[in-house]
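Researcher: Here's the sequence for the chain we discussed earlier.
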Amino acid sequence: MTTPPPPFFARAGTWLHGHLPTRETIAANRWLAPFAPHLLNNGLWRLNRRSVPRGVALGLFAGLAVPFAHTIIAALLAIPLRANVLIAAGTTVVSNPITWIVIFPLERSIGRFLIGLNHINPAVHVAAQAGSSVHGWLSVVLKTSGEIALGSVVLAIAAGVVGYVLVSLIWRFRMARKWRGRHDRGPIMAGGAGPKNG
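Model: Thanks. This is the structure I predict for it:
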């Protein structure tokens, strides 16, 4: 008897299933309609060792680096990059209300570290210089936004590269296992020749 998943995971699975794009939803999207002839090209929907890793990398990058319309941008970029459209659009769900709790603080930490502010609280630093003026708080907002923007791009690039490498390795591993399985079953006679009758 199968144990049902916990309510949280059941809700998360239902949410993801409802938000994963399909060929029909992508073709029906009004922003993507002008590009439908290209997006519906069968070559962009095949699963192969090149299109799938590209789709994963593209989806991760678009989901983390682009602040809105992740699916649309990932689908459009899949055309020139020859990535699998469904994989690219579907992988953008890495950015969702559930993961934002972790993504935003991580992006800000990365951005703050890269611009040399990892040991300085920008709110305290700016408030000490400008007091509680509107200009001071605007500077805080701009600094924080800059940290998040920089961190999001760096995190998106890193996630895209890691995703591409991991999926490529998994794909090669599966192909190697398949070839070994065929070899273990014995060689196939060339030309379909069978034993000769006496």
